[in-house]
Write a structure and sequence with these properties.
Elements lengths: L13 E7 L6 E6 L15 H12 L7 E10 L7 E10 L5 E9 L4 E12 L31 H5 E9 L2 E11 L11 H9 L2 H4 L8 E5 L1 E6 L8 E9 L4 E9 L4 E13 L1
Antiparallel strand pairs: 1-2, 2-4, 3-6, 3-10, 4-5, 5-6, 7-8, 8-11, 9-13, 10-13, 11-12, 12-13
Helix pairs in contact: 1-3
């Protein structure tokens, strides 16, 4: 994708519009800005911003001590509109060693849930083995930008900076691309490393599309991310591949690096259908 950001129409992905008393962390309401729109429609969000918004809700739940999220799994129950949404979070399974937390994203215009995220929290240990990730041999500056097809909507695409090391969005097959947000998740709030990573990883199924994206849709029903350590920095590299079965099912997997080294692996189930 082109990396100028000239098409940006908002300073963030969301703005906070209110909070109710429901849920352990309260139910927060948001206005979804045009920058959340996915490539297929100006009225439906790309999966990245909602994933980051759900990750934010999981991170903000009260914890008995210093914890990290080791796995985040998101089920997409329907299209997320570019409109009013809200998020409610709770602790499903408390524990002293591990706990299971959940966040639900609602389409407020239709009063229905559109996505549910669950995360396993682990204690942060200072006396454990120190990870020694190896940086990739390439950096974000080593890639090249690329123009998306003219028919695509560029809300989310322009809100992210892209640097392609291998592959291309217009060429089917595996791909390696560095990504980062140009804008914060919420206006006036700096995103965490986890939020930045979740804003990127849903793109794995698109950057590694196994068929011509002008003729085929790859609609993911879920996203699961296993993290080996807390993400660092702004840039994330997706080394992604899509595999197709004989019918309408596909899978997209990615190895994710930050500039320090390996940080996570992701997987998505795909509905593959002609456009």
């Amino acid at each position: 994708m082109k990396s100028t950001g000239a098409g940006l129409r908002a300073p963030a992905f969301y703005t906070v519009t209110g909070r109710t008393a429901a849920g352990e962390a309260g139910r927060e309401a948001f206005a979804s800005l045009p920058t959340t729109a996915g490539p297929w429609s100006s009225v439906a969000q790309h999966g990245g911003p909602p994933a980051a918004l759900l990750g934010r809700a999981l991170e903000r739940l009260p914890a008995p001590g210093d914890t990290v999220l080791g796995r985040v799994s998101i089920d997409l129950l329907g299209p997320v509109p570019v409109g009013p949404v809200s998020v409610e979070a709770r602790v499903l399974r408390p524990g002293r060693s591990v706990s299971l937390v959940e966040a639900t994203l609602y389409d407020d215009s239709a009063s229905r849930a559109v996505a549910v995220a669950r995360g396993w929290r682990f204690p942060r240990r200072e006396d454990g083995p120190e990870p020694d990730p190896k940086p990739l041999p390439h950096r974000p500056a080593d890639g090249v930008p690329e123009e998306p097809p003219d028919s695509w909507h560029t809300g989310y695409l322009d809100a992210m900076e892209w640097s392609w090391v291998e592959g291309a969005i217009t060429r089917p097959g595996p791909a390696v691309v560095w990504m980062r947000q140009r804008i914060p998740l919420l206006e006036g709030e700096q995103p965490t490393g986890l939020q930045r990573l979740l804003a990127c990883v849903d793109s794995a199924s698109g950057v590694s599309a196994a068929l011509d994206t002008r003729e085929w849709n790859f609609l993911n029903t879920d996203l699961t991310v296993h993290l080996v350590r807390p993400p660092e920095g702004e840039w994330f590299c997706l080394d992604a591949v899509t595999m197709l079965g004989p019918g309408s099912v596909g899978t997209a997997t990615a190895t994710i690096h930050d500039e320090r080294g390996l940080v996570a692996r992701s997987a998505q189930a795909l509905l593959v259908a002609r456009r």
